């Protein structure tokens, strides 16, 4: 029984160590397969700092281009890796097969969705100052807008 117990402790430690050492800076590698003239998956969620590697399984060459990056021609079985340090949504496509489109959603390092990608951009809020033509500022009808006569300074 002793070897089993020792093994159990080793397993427990092996589970514990990654929990202690993991932090927000731990980058992950993601793989996106190019198969059948399509990206699989065509939308990938990663965290800021993660990297995505595309692998071309097609006999056709592909050539990826996206916001801020571009590959070379990728023949069969070649790979292309991009690191995404900033949160945001990065659309990309194949310049050879322009109908091949994909998107990488880069979340915050803690996995939360950055505000700028939470949805469609909303219309800017209405200005807080409102103008009304029915009640213009000014003197009331019939009342002259003359200032009151100056009050003489009190004398001693
Ligand atoms: Cu292509």
Average residue pLDDT: 80
End-to-end separation in angstroms reads: 109 Å
> Could you say which overall geometry the principal axes of the C-alpha atoms support?
elongated
Can you tell me the CATH class of the domain at 36-111?
Mainly Beta
Task: Quote the beta fraction.
Answer: 25-35%
Structural class: alpha+beta
Which strand order do you get reading across the main beta sheet? 3-9-8-5-6
Sketch the major β-sheet: 5 strands, mixed
- The CATH homologous superfamily name of the domain at 36-111 equals Cupredoxins -  blue copper proteins
Task: Kindly describe this structure.
By secondary structure, this protein is α+β, with helices and mostly antiparallel strands. The strands form 2 sheets. A 5-stranded mixed beta sheet has the order 3-9-8-5-6, with no helix packed on it. The protein has one helix spanning about 1-20, and strands at about 30-35, 40, 45, 50-55, 65, 70, 80-85, 90-95, 100-105. It has a domain at about 35-110: Immunoglobulin-like, CATH 2.60.40.420. The protein is elongated. The chain starts with a helix and ends in a 49-residue tail after the last strand. The site of copper (II) ion has 6 residues, from loops.
